[in-house]
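Handout, section B. The chain below has 135 residues.
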Amino acid sequence: MIVREATAADLDAVLALWEASRSAIAVTEDRRETAEALCAKGALLVAESDGKVVGALIAAWDGWRGNMYRLAVAPAERRRGVAAALVEAGHERLRACGATRVTALVGREDEVAKALWRSTGYDEDGQIARFVRNL
């Protein structure tokens, strides 16, 4: 397995992976144009095994803090270190951008995802509430 920046050739596979693993709380539409913009910025990472995309992660830098979200791994590839490898690659990318702190967005009730992020060294932040608004 290799982890690398996504290219335009990966977008169909990434969008299909996101659709198949979409959580019930995800309300933002996954659009090809958005994924293309992420590719152009180097913020979309993929895990590839045997020539197929088996995982994806957005590791975005806003100039102040790193943010990781939309972590998805194909069901047949779970529990094989794919997510951990993507997270580490995200750390490397964000460090190179200048990030010293990273936020990972996780559904409050998603115990599987929370366990993954804890296993990669993250702590749940009980001090900050997140406010959102659709535009």
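Note. The first strand starts at residue 2 and ends at 5. Compare this with the example in section A.
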